[in-house]
């Protein structure tokens, strides 16, 4: 999906059409891995990715104080910002604060439409029509009934809600092969209603795409402002005197670059080693 997005194969609304998924993604995946994945499998995995991305983007949107360090693959923020976040999200744990997230930037491109910055989306030309609901797309994807759980890195069942009303669509009526005029009229109305809802869906997707672009620009600005002093302050277990000594040790670009690529534990060990004695 990341490679497909980088090649500009989204349609004009910023999403992957069913045709693009089947011809560009699934065909190559099945050929390389010797598997037989179909569009329903893609929808299930897409749901998984979207739930993970929603967890990440919810964190980034919570406060402008949050950032993401591309070197360490970690979310960054001051102690006060983290405290406010966990107060508002008591079910989230310190995995978000101290864990590494190597899939964040890939999901930002594939799900958050981050690759759209400075590029034009390229459609598939006359072979691509407006997105229609085929037989496979009309089926329920059971993974939609699950929520992503960050702590266990898994999808969990949602509480059961009321059963939906049974379908009244004449297209699935088994009573007769003859279709009365009233049902034909109703079918046309249903089709018109669906087309209108499809337009609204595309508008919502375009809005989401712009939000992804804005989020990416904000992230790059935060990373530009993330200094070596910020990295030292984010390292746990350092008193003020040790922090000042660490600044003196990191007096050249080479040392700074290496330090920023270290994990928090490696930074602490490096500083303790250099200041020992």
TrEMBL record:
<feature type="region of interest" description="Disordered">
    <location>
        <begin position="157"/>
        <end position="182"/>
    </location>
</feature>
<dbReference type="InterPro" id="IPR055314">
    <property type="entry name" value="At2g29880-like"/>
</dbReference>
<feature type="domain" description="Myb/SANT-like">
    <location>
        <begin position="1"/>
        <end position="85"/>
    </location>
</feature>
<dbReference type="InterPro" id="IPR024752">
    <property type="entry name" value="Myb/SANT-like_dom"/>
</dbReference>
<protein>
    <submittedName>
        <fullName>Uncharacterized protein</fullName>
    </submittedName>
</protein>
<feature type="domain" description="At2g29880-like C-terminal">
    <location>
        <begin position="228"/>
        <end position="274"/>
    </location>
</feature>
<dbReference type="Pfam" id="PF24769">
    <property type="entry name" value="At2g29880_C"/>
</dbReference>
<dbReference type="Pfam" id="PF12776">
    <property type="entry name" value="Myb_DNA-bind_3"/>
</dbReference>
<feature type="compositionally biased region" description="Polar residues">
    <location>
        <begin position="157"/>
        <end position="171"/>
    </location>
</feature>
<dbReference type="InterPro" id="IPR056253">
    <property type="entry name" value="At2g29880-like_C"/>
</dbReference>
């Amino acid at each position: 999906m990341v490679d497909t997005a980088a090649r500009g194969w989204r349609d004009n609304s910023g999403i992957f059409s069913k045709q693009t998924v089947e011809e560009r993604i699934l065909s190559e995946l099945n050929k390389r891995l010797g598997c037989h994945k179909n569009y329903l499998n893609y929808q299930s995995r897409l749901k998984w990715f979207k739930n993970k991305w929603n967890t990440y983007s919810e964190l980034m949107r919570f406060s402008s104080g949050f950032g993401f360090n591309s070197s360490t693959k970690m979310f960054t923020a001051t102690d006060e910002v983290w405290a406010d976040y966990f107060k508002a999200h008591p079910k989230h744990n310190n995995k978000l604060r101290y864990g590494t997230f190597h899939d964040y930037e890939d999901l930002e491109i594939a799900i958050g439409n981050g690759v759209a910055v400075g590029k034009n989306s390229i459609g598939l030309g006359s072979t691509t029509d407006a997105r229609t609901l085929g037989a496979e797309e009309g089926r329920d994807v059971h993974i939609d009934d699950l929520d992503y759980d960050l702590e266990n890195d898994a999808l969990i069942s949602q509480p059961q809600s009321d059963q939906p009303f049974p379908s009244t669509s004449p297209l699935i009526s088994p009573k007769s092969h003859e279709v009365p005029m009233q049902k034909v009229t109703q079918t046309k109305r249903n089709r018109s209603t669906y087309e209108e809802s499809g337009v609204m869906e595309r508008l919502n997707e375009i809005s989401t795409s712009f939000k992804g672009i804005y989020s990416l620009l904000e992230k790059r600005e935060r990373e530009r402002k993330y200094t070596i002093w910020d990295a030292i302050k984010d390292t746990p277990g350092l008193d003020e005197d040790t922090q000042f000594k660490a600044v003196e040790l990191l007096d050249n670009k080479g040392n700074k670059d290496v330090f920023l690529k270290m994990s928090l534990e490696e930074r602490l060990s490096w500083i303790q080693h250099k200041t020992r004695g």
